[in-house]
């Protein structure tokens, strides 16, 4: 593939993502991966869009939405790597994710690491707030943004080693568990066509959410076995079975629950057994239903 050279004014013909220079020059970010620095620039680029849409919390802090699929597409990476990059930005204090509950995208707050929260809107080295020490607003002697030197003394310690992250390995494990859960949640949301379930059964949203929550608990379980209908089955087997479920299987399980006239003492165990056996029993159930209707002359 051959490309042309730049000529004069053509050098300004592109639009660019902004990646703050301190991410490459400051020692505190020395161990931050290049991919995470690029991702920070992509997140920073979305701030303007968020302001246009009014995506701010109750105290005026701007947040962005950035789906895992979009990160994978723009960085040409897989879901595991995308999760790892987001965790890395969180560990360095460059972003903060706020979960919004089941099946809702997380709000991502992109942190302004150049400005200390206690410093206000300081924009030059003299410590003033708008006009340099000499000059005027129209023709200042010193620019308000010195891109060659940015004072980052307020960053006292490496975020990874700060006092708020004493047990960092434990926090990383928890973050990985949460990211794994949210990744599987997104998968199940698409695989089971949850939006269609909500639309078709608007008065059973709690039941649908309970089924999804139970499936997530099993899929992300660290136990070796799960009890299904009185038998202890390997988690890997149950997980594999649950990942094969589709919209029709969930609809089938919900139908069985509605038609069950007996009292269910342990609803969790009932659902686990119904979900696990759904791929094995659904076809036979519907076939028996059809045969019965044919025998009685309904069809």
Would you kindly provide a written description of the structure presented here, covering whatever features stand out?
The structure is a single chain. The chain is mostly helical and 299 residues long. The chain folds into 2 domains: 114 residues, Arc Repressor Mutant, subunit A; 104 residues, no CATH class. It has 11 helices and 4 strands. The protein has a two-stranded antiparallel sheet. Strands 3-4 form a two-stranded antiparallel ribbon. Strand 3 and strand 4 form a beta hairpin. It starts with 21 loop residues before the first helix and ends with a helix. 14% of the residues are buried.
Give a quick rundown of the structure.
This protein is mainly α and 299 residues long. It is built from 11 helices and 4 strands, in the order H-H-H-H-H-E-E-H-H-H-E-E-H-H-H. Strand 1 and strand 2 (107-110) form a beta hairpin.
């Amino acid at each position: 593939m051959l490309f042309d050279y730049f000529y004069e004014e053509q050098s300004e013909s592109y639009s660019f993502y902004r990646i703050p220079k301190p991410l490459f020059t400051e020692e505190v970010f020395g161990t931050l991966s290049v991919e995470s620095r690029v991702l920070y620039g992509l997140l920073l680029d979305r701030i303007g869009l968020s302001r246009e849409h009014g995506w701010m919390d109750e105290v005026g802090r701007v947040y962005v939405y950035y789906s895992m699929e979009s990160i994978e597409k723009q960085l040409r990476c897989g879901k595991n790597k995308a999760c790892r990059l987001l965790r890395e930005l969180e560990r360095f204090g460059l972003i903060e994710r706020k979960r919004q509950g089941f099946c809702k995208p997380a709000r991502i707050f992109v942190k302004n690491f150049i400005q200390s929260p206690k410093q206000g809107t300081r924009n030059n080295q003299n410590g003033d707030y708008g006009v340099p020490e000499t000059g005027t607003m129209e023709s200042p002697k010193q620019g308000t943004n010195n891109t060659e030197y940015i004072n980052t003394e307020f960053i006292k310690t490496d975020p990874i080693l700060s006092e708020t992250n004493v047990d960092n390995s434990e926090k990383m494990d928890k973050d990985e568990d949460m990211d794994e859960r949210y990744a599987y949640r997104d998968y199940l949301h698409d695989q089971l066509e949850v939006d269609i379930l909500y639309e078709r059964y608007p008065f059973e949203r709690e039941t649908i959410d309970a089924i999804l929550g139970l499936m997530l608990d099993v899929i992300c379980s660290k136990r070796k076995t799960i009890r299904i209908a009185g038998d202890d089955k390997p988690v890997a087997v149950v997980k594999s079975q649950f990942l094969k479920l589709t919209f029709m299987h969930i609809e089938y399980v919900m139908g069985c629950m509605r038609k069950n006239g007996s009292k269910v003492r342990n609803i969790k165990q009932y659902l686990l057994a119904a979900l696990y056996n759904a791929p094995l029993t659904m076809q036979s159930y519907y076939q028996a239903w059809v045969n019965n209707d044919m025998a009685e002359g309904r069809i």
